[in-house]
Amino acid sequence: MIKVQREKVYLSRLDKEVFLNPISIADDEWMAEKWDTETLGKAFTEVNVDILFEIFWRILDVEAKRMIAKVAIIEFDNLTEKAPLDFENPVDKLKKIISGGKEIFAVMMAIYETRRKSNPDPVDNQKKSLKEELSSGSQKFSTSSPQNTDSAKKHTEPSPGVNSLT
After folding, report:
1. Is 151 exposed, middle or buried (0-12, 13-18, 19+ CB in 10 A)?
2. Residue 83's pLDDT band (boundaries 50, 70, 90)?
């Protein structure tokens, strides 16, 4: 069994790391309904934070969403503190929390790595599974001695002058 390691992003304004869940089939369907493949690709190459933060919010784990929802965003009008901003849209709140290009890049990479790990290459998985089985099962099987393999070859090799059926 292959365990998917969750990606994390450090958000400096929260002074915390947040974790992303693997991308589910429902997440894939949601993204396909909202954006076409070209738009999703451009979101990464052109750094469309609206799309990136929407995906980020969708795949954040529950604890991270709770933490972000509870954060009070305070603004000032000169020296006067305003009431905490009220957000209905999590993307708008993430725009106030995520700081600078380094964190935006970390969000992009976390989404990319989460996608990669959520849809691992079946050939690589098969190789990893086979290696795990061989390493755990290698002690169970004894190898035959060279003498045994030599005698086996003698019985399976055709005699000189006998044509094989191929």
Report:
1. exposed
2. confident
